[in-house]
Amino acid sequence: MERFVLQENIRRYQDLLGKETDETQRQTLARLLVAAEREQAMLAAENAGIDVPAASRTMRMVPGALRRCIADFERDLSSSGRLVLLLDPGPGLPILEASATYVEATMTRRADLIGRNLFDVFPDNPADPGADGVANLYASLRIAAVSGKPHRMPVQRYDVRDSNGAFVERYWQPVNTPLMDSEGHVVALLHEVTDVTATCRPGA
User: Fold this and answer.
1) What pTM did the predictor assign?
2) What distance in Å separates the CA atoms of residue 173 and residue 176, rounded to the nearest whole number?
3) What is the enclosing helix (H) or strand (E) of 191?
4) 103 and 122 in contact (C-beta within 8 Å)?
5) Which of 11, 43, 72, 202 is nearest to 138 (CA)?
6) What is the crossing angle of helices 133-147 and 23-48, to 10°?
7) Is the pLDDT of residue 20 over 80?
8) What span, in angstroms and rounded, lies between the C-alpha atoms of 52 and 47?
9) What number of helices (H) and strands (E) belong to the chain?
10) Cβ atoms within 10 A of the Cβ of 202, count?
């Protein structure tokens, strides 16, 4: 029911936004739309992960494929210098692994990432009413999983928290790649980013 209500609200906000001419009202509708899209993405991620049935079946039926993905990540990517996360495509999108440079760039600790759900660790900045990182990232992960191909996102503002819990403005160039088993089922998702804050922050 909650998902249906959110979908209806999103459609309504989109329709109203397309008709509204007053700029103040348009800004209000845009904020409401972003908030509804964020809530929908978080609900979908929590309940179904990437919402591709083959993914959840694979996680139960072929655990060896997942173990191989984790082992390959630890061998090839953990200390590679690339900013990458390995994600379980199931409910919650739990974080399976993180490279040392990703941990450093996001001002986190590996122990605080592994096993936790993606959007619990990396929520949108509540002080930014236009924050759309959660909704856009979820959409990209799902596109990658459904298509079976890497999906490159546009540059995305996605603030992260510092060691004191304060959000710090950051811009990223993300690429999301599905990792498949021999039968073409999604076993895991590789989320890789490049920090482009230095060139994208307003006034830079």
Assistant:
1) 0.90
2) 10
3) strand 186-195
4) no
5) 43
6) 50
7) no
8) 12
9) 9, 8
10) 7
Asked whether the beta carbons of 97 and 70 are under 8 A apart, the reply is yes
Which of 89, 75, 67, 101 lies closest to 192 in space, CA to CA? 101
Tell the CATH topology of 52-200: Beta-Lactamase (3.30.450)
Give the angle 133-39-3 at the CA atoms, nearest 5°: 135
- Neighbouring residues of 46: CB distance < 8 A, sequence distance ≥ 6: 91, 92, 117, 119
Could you state, in order of their start, the residue ranges of all structural domains in the chain?
52-200
Do 125 and 38 meet the contact criterion of CB atoms below 8 Å apart?
no
Q: Look up residue 166 and give its amino acid.
A: A
**Structure letter (DSSP) for residue 62:** -
Q: Rounded CA gap, 122 and 93, in Å?
A: 12
pLDDT tens for each residue of 69-102: 999 999 999 999 999 999 999 999 999 999 999 9
Q: What is the pLDDT of residues 46-74, one digit of tens each?
A: 998 986 655 444 444 457 888 899 999 99
Query: What one-character-per-residue DSSP string does 147-184 give?
Result: HTS-EEPPPEE--EE-TTS-EE--EEEEEEEEEE-TTS
Query: By the 8 A CB rule, do 97 and 85 touch?
Result: yes
Instruction: Name the 3-class secondary structure at 59.
Output: helix
How many degrees, rounded to 5, is the angle at CA 122 between CA 118 and CA 124? 125
Q: Where are the alpha helices (DSSP H) in 49-132?
A: 53-61, 63-76, 100-105, 110-113, 118-121
What is the end-to-end Cα distance of the chain in Å, rounded? 45
